[in-house]
Write a structure and sequence with these properties.
6% strand; mainly alpha; DUF202 domain-containing protein; membrane; transmembrane
Length: 124
């Protein structure tokens, strides 16, 4: 059986090997970056910012640093729940859809966090 596209074989020689084209591989990578990467990067950057504030600034900024850490934990929770609720987003037969519910939850958590940070900074 001749295929017009170059195929890669994944998972070695197992019976459940996945034979996909270069275009399908690009699509899977794009879905992974969009689906998981954005949430995890945001969480890790929030943790880093919180640790930076806790280490470099005075005690008066500790609440701000801790809030960034809590925000990072919330983003990790959202990422975990979104992944669990979405099922198999890498199934090529299903069109990829951005979940409006998770976007709204993320927006709400982010907005509340930044309002609290603003209030904390204004009270310094």
């Amino acid at each position: 059986m001749a295929h017009p596209h170059k195929h890669r074989l994944y998972r070695g020689h197992r019976a459940k090997s996945l034979n996909i084209t270069e275009e399908e591989l690009v699509e899977i990578r794009a879905r992974e970056r969009t689906f998981d990467g954005a949430y995890w990067r945001t969480a890790m950057k929030s943790f880093s910012m919180g640790m930076l504030i806790l280490r470099l600034f005075t005690r008066s900024f500790y609440k701000v640093g801790l809030l960034f850490v809590v925000f990072g934990m919330a983003m990790l929770g959202i990422a975990f729940l979104r992944r669990k609720a979405a099922g198999d987003v890498f199934d090529q037969r299903k069109p990829f859809e951005t979940s409006g519910f998770w976007v709204m939850i993320t927006t709400l958590v982010t907005t509340i966090t930044y309002f609290i940070i603003f209030a904390l900074i204004m009270n310094l």
